[in-house]
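Q: We require from you a single protein entry containing the residue sequence and its fold in token form, and nothing else.
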Amino acid sequence: MATTNRPDRVIVNSHDDQIIGTSANNGFYNRIVNNLQTPMLNVKGIQLNRANFINSSLPLNDANGQLIFCYARTESSGATISLADIQIVRLHPSWFVPAESFTAFVKNKYYNYVSDLVTDLNLAASAGGDDVTYNARWVSGDVTFAYNQATRRITFTGNTASKWYSPVASDFPGLNTYISALTMNALGGVKSQPFARPTPYSVTPTMNSRLGFALSYGNRGIFWNANSLVGCASSTGVPQANTVGTEGDSWPILLGIQNVNVYLNVVNGSGIDSQNKKALLASIPIEAPPLGVNSYTASSLQYPALSVSNEIYNLELTLLDEEGNAYLIPQNYNSFFELSVLY
């Protein structure tokens, strides 16, 4: 039998994809195409053998609500926490370009240390760190953040007299209404801040969990008591008066994503992720720091995708993070994938 149409290994390399040069979104890509000069015939299975790409995810992900910290400010310690009580401190995406002479913003960046992030959060929370025209839920100087080197936890403290402060969960009912209203005064006009978690996800993750305020709306902290309030996402569930800090229940994590899911157009129903998206070929753990080279090698050729197209004319890889967002890689970063093909 002829073997010219039956290569055992195939390379998909982003620098060889001519389409990226014209279709990359804002200079970024998450899809790589290899149009085969000769189709592969009688294919029985495909496996991702090796991958090599630069970890382009920052410690806080630009693509969703990880740039947005939400808290509630009420008139008393026993007042019911409602949507109207919620305030927002945010960072702008790393790629943000402001309108001419506009300076009321703090951009996301590569943070080496939690203390560096806390410094920027305090800038974003203070006068000149945002603008109520574009973030209606921002109150200048209303909160202060601190990082305790001994406990390695973050504390946020309210500054306005006679107010009571609570961290709020990402799934606080109606919170997406406020998050989706955030805009940016960008060069060329006002733009929406990216936040959306794509279908079928229903909750926008926020910075709260990345800072260590990890409880969801329905959780009850370990020190929940008679004074606790639904909506106060802390271990006690009790709002704190101004000047009294609330410490995170967990430790901050400066890791934008943990896995990159690789989808292949010819895999069909052989692979499926936890949100029922098909064509999953492999899930690659992120083991390199931001802007480092992330390498992956399959331990052996044991788990090929078997429900594949019998005749393959092109290979199209799509990269998504574990939350379903496009895993965006700058166009000048090369990505390399080696596939093993079974016949």
In short: The two ends are 12 Å apart (CA to CA). Residues 65-247 form one domain. Residues 114-125 form the longest helix (12 residues).
